[in-house]
Design a protein that fits this description.
Layout lengths: L4 E7 L5 H12 L4 E4 L7 E8 L6 H4 L4 E9 L1 E3 L8 E4 L7 H10 L2 E5 L8 E2 L2 E2 H6 L9 E18 L2 E12 L5 H12 L3 E11 L2 E2 L6 H6 L4 E2 H8 L2 E3 L2 H8 L15 E4 L5 E8 L2 E7 L11
């Protein structure tokens, strides 16, 4: 059986997240592989995969903050809000001032209401929005509250092609889970009256995992390396070392006393010997296991 843990992949362009999972299943020699946070085919960068029991972490890692390096092209919108879509009307950007671009980014920073792209996996009346879009139908998507912690413009580049002028805006964006960078590009273009779409995207961080620990698929094919389950939990969540009685109770799915520090999110619960046992969450008056990695019937082994 493959070891449980996390693999951080530097996803190549033109691969779907599912393509990466399928490739990793072969490399890890297990079917039990999943990913946290989908990347569109055009995007590259950090894609976190769970192996075996590591798949139990993915729902919690998906909720963590993410950082991207993005290029937004102003002057042209598309029906998908990115470079893979059908282009709309071209708008001349010759009179667009740098100051206006910075102001537009500032308006999209903080807690904002964001409408997802038409081509997204959001369900409307039980049907994925992207399926309706492929049929030529536009659906009404509700705005969602998201948080953009950072929207720093790193370069503004002006250019021309056979269709006219455009402005490319390079930016570093850190945001909450559920934020669509394509929608930020679209909304920047709408706010400036130029139209806009996402021209390039590279994810540089998912929670505690960044490009420094990511490996390409070629590198993983040469040497398959992963973060052990215990290290993965310790990197992503606060850690609590339990005593023997607490360890026994958690392994049976029972409650224990809450953490004195009162963390609101998941806490990694470790046995006295360093084995990661579970993720727990503080509730009023107790801590409840929400994911158990080593249940009562299993023999404890050191992570």
């Amino acid at each position: 059986m493959a070891e449980s843990g996390v693999v951080v992949v530097d996803k190549p362009a033109d691969w779907t997240s599912h393509d990466v999972v399928a490739k990793t299943r072969g490399l890890a020699r297990t079917r039990r592989v999943g990913h946290a946070g989908t990347l569109d085919p055009m995007a590259t960068g950090v894609l976190v995969l769970g192996i075996e029991k590591g798949t139990k972490l993915l729902g919690y890692l998906t909720l963590t903050e993410k950082t991207y390096e993005a290029t937004i092209r102003l002057g042209l919108s598309t029906n998908t809000d990115d470079a893979e879509g059908e282009p709309g009307e071209r708008v001349d950007t010759g009179g667009l001032l740098d100051r206006e671009v910075y102001e537009a980014a500032a308006k999209l920073t903080g807690t904002i209401a964001q409408v997802p792209p038409q081509v997204s996996a959001i369900k409307v009346d039980g049907k994925r929005a992207y399926k309706s879009a492929r049929e030529g139908k536009e659906v009404a998507l509700k705005a969602r509250e998201v948080t953009v912690e950072q929207f720093d413009i790193t370069a503004i580049r002006r250019g021309e092609d056979v269709d006219g002028s455009f402005v490319d805006v390079d930016a570093t964006i850190s945001c909450s889970s559920g934020t669509y960078i394509r929608s930020l590009a679209r909304d920047m273009g709408v706010g400036l009256g130029t139209g806009g779409h996402l021209a390039a995207l590279r994810r540089t961080r998912v929670g505690p995992y960044d490009l420094s620990v990511a490996r390409t698929l070629d590198q993983l094919a040469e040497e398959f390396t992963q973060v052990s389950l215990g290290r993965a939990v310790a990197a992503a969540f606060p850690v609590r070392t339990m005593d023997q009685d607490e360890t026994r109770r958690i392994r049976h799915g029972n409650r224990i006393a809450p953490s004195s520090s009162g963390e609101k999110g998941p806490v990694g619960l470790f046995a006295p010997d360093g084995t990661v046992i579970a993720l727990g969450e503080n509730r009023p008056g107790h801590m409840k296991p929400v994911v158990v990695f080593v249940p009562a019937q299993a023999r404890t082994t050191t992570s």
